[in-house]
């Protein structure tokens, strides 16, 4: 028996195998067709069908062969497959003197469809995988939390610095006015020798007429009969800021 290499067919127990074996010769529809097991490079007959027949089946009814002479095709059907059906089969046309021409050869593998429980090692590997994934997720959550805290602290520090700068700007703009309860700030011109120096005087409010008041004047400007007034001359050695005039 000569022919092509078997093609693999895999089925689960209880499934159905259906294959078609076409033939092309115009006169082959008159030949007997066979469904065989491959034994010693020959045919161990399972089913045969003559040219005047259209269907034949096995005694148990699980195997059936059909010949469609119009379509020139032999069809094989095997139902309710069992593991013991695993073997090499071929459909063929009988020529003469125990000569068969194979049309199609298959290697059928029928496997049991029972559920395979995981082994102890597989269960252990699955548990380890779940544990590793849990640890990785926990680390990612902790990293995200630490990052959020760091960003929050940095934002808070930025707000504090911004608030301090705004307070300094407000204090600078308030120079030259008297604010009760605040401290004085020095103002002067570019060159102290060319003009007087100034200082803001903050007065506690309210004040009574008996409370002394301090001010900064030149000696020549002091009145001759001061009452409840004390005078002080303040000299500054630090260079004034150029941004204020």
TrEMBL record:
Keywords: Disulfide bond, Immunoglobulin domain, Membrane, Signal, Transmembrane, Transmembrane helix. Gene3D superfamilies: Immunoglobulins. One of its GO terms (molecular function) is signaling receptor activity. InterPro entries: Ig-like_dom, Ig-like_dom_sf, Ig-like_fold, Ig_sub, Ig_V-set, Immune_rcpt_domain. Residues 166-175, 184-194 have a biased composition (Basic and acidic residues). This is TRML2 protein. Coiled coil: none annotated. The chain crosses the membrane at residues 130-156. Pfam families: V-set. Residues 166-230 are annotated as: Disordered. It comes from Prunella himalayana. It comes from the Eukaryota. GO terms for cellular component: cell surface. Residues 1-107 form the Ig-like domain.
């Amino acid at each position: 028996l000569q022919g092509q290499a078997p093609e693999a067919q895999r089925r689960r127990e209880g499934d159905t195998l259906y294959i078609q074996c076409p033939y092309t010769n115009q006169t082959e529809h008159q030949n007997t067709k066979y469904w065989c097991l491959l034994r010693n490079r020959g045919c161990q007959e399972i089913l045969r069908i003559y040219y005047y027949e259209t269907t034949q089946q096995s005694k148990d009814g699980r195997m059936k062969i059909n010949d469609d002479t119009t379509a020139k095709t032999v069809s094989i059907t095997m139902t309710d497959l069992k593991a013991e059906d695993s073997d090499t089969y071929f459909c063929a046309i009988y020529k003469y003197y125990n000569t068969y021409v194979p049309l199609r050869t298959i290697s059928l593998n029928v496997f049991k469809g029972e559920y395979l429980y995981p082994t102890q090692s597989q269960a252990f590997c699955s548990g380890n995988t779940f544990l590793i994934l849990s640890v990785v997720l926990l680390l990612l959550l902790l990293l995200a939390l630490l990052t959020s805290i760091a960003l929050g602290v940095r934002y808070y520090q930025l707000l504090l610095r911004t608030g301090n700068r705004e307070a300094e700007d407000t204090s600078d703009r308030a120079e030259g006015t008297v604010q009760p309860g605040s401290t004085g700030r020095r103002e002067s011109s570019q060159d102290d020798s060319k003009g007087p120096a100034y200082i803001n005087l903050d007065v506690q409010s309210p004040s009574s007429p008996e409370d002394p008041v301090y001010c900064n004047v030149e000696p020549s400007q002091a009145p001759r009969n001061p009452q409840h007034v004390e005078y002080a001359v303040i000299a500054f050695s630090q260079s004034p800021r150029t941004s204020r005039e």
